[in-house]
Amino acid sequence: MTVDRYIDAATRANTRRSYRSAIEHYEAEWGGFLPATADSVARYLAAYAGNLSISTLKLRLAALAQWHLDQGFPDPTKAPMVKKVLKGIRELHPEREKQAAPLQLSQLEQLAAWLLREESMANDAGDKARGMRCRRDRALVLLGFWRAFRSDELCRLRLEDSVIHHGQGLSLYLPRSKGDRRNEGTHYKVPALSRLCPVTAYQAWAESMPRQHGPVFCAIDRWGRVSDTAMHPNSIIPLLRSLFQQAGIADAALYSSHSLRRGFATWANGQGWDVKALMEYVGWKDMKSALRYIDSADPFRQQQINTSLALSDQVLVALTENAAPME
Q1: 273-281: which pairs have CB atoms within 8 A and are 24 or more residues apart?
Q2: Whether residues 147 and 268 fall in one domain
Q3: CB atoms closer than 10 angstroms to residue 51
Q4: Which of 40, 57, 144, 263 has its CB 3.0 to 4.6 Å from that of 102, i.e. a possible disulfide?
């Protein structure tokens, strides 16, 4: 029983749920048998090639591979036939990668200012619950942006693992995160800023909570009571979209929790941050992951090309003026 508990803990809960769902789909929905053959896996992929995305099909393959490895059977997903079918699906059903829109600094300012006004009005009206939610949401948004946190990381933060250094910043500790594959724990430093300060927002929220331990970001009921249970990561996206819409940010549906992470990366890149420094600050392990999050400040290269054209015109004029007259 103890061994099973540790084996179970070696795989994240979300991954276990996804794998169970994938196996059920293969057996119950499609009618496949386990252990599977390479031929049956290839036919399974072909059956859903037009309906499921490549990423979903790859998740299904990972689940099937893990099931066979756990049960001591050969892994059929590594067969050349399966790899060839997956390659053919990519060719015939290419998919465009969907990315959340990055939250711009001006939009962050707009949202933070709106939350402050809403909190003030709620306090004046005696609406404790509304005021508490505004304070919590402001801390969540500013902390999520300036530390480029994922939604699950925000939900995993705990009060007892945070230390405020007055005038300097905030120290946070996460025992595990997506980028921390060995679960060694990660320490984060959050800077105190002259405006849009995540430390000030965090401190205001933490000091208003009735406890000094447990999850930082929790649900709040209609009477203003703070739950002892952390918010679920899946609740962050609808919360943010609702906030963006209420604050008057256009096309709120285009944003997600990744908008905070992408927004910071885009801002830092525009400010001239070295990619290596940005990777270290955010926690990316490879360049490819970092570049996926960074949007150029001049995506069409319009400014760069126009500048080059202007310089070319200046050179051409100078050459014309200095050219010797023809006889």
Answers
A1: 281/148
A2: yes
A3: 9
A4: 263
Contacts of 5-13 spanning 24+ positions with Cβ under 8 A: none
pLDDT higher at 146 or 294: 146
Tell me if 201 sits within 8 A of 144, measured CB to CB.
Answer: no
HSE, side-chain direction, 13 A CA sphere, residue 68? 19
Q: What is the pLDDT of residue 6?
A: 56
Tell me the whole-structure pTM to 2 decimals: 0.74
Q: Is residue 163 located within the same domain as residue 275? A: yes
Cβ neighbors of 89 (< 8 A, separation 6 or more) are 45, 46, 49, 54, 57
What CATH number does the domain containing 270 carry? Answer: 1.10.443.10
pLDDT tens for 233-246 read 989 999 999 999 99
230: its two tokens = 């952390």
Judge contact between 49 and 91, C-beta under 8 A.
Answer: no
Contact 98, 259 (CB under 8 A): no
Q: Does residue 100 form part of some domain? A: no
Q: What is the pLDDT of residue 59?
A: 92
> Do 166 and 255 reside in the same domain of the chain?
yes
- Is the pLDDT score of 162 beyond 90? yes
Q: Does residue 71 lie within any of the structural domains? A: yes
26 and 169 share one domain: no
Q: Whole domain around residue 56: which residue ranges?
A: 2-92
Average pLDDT over residues 82-111: 89
CB 92 within 8 A of CB 46: no
In a domain, 82, yes or no: yes
Is residue 312 helix, strand or coil?
helix
Is residue 313 one of the residues assigned to a domain? Answer: no
261-283 mean pLDDT? 89
Contacts of 78 (CB under 8 A, 6+ apart): 65
Number of structural domains (the chain) is: 2
DSSP state of 118: H
Three-state DSSP at 16 gives: helix
Q: How many CA atoms lie within 13 A of 96 on its CB side?
A: 3
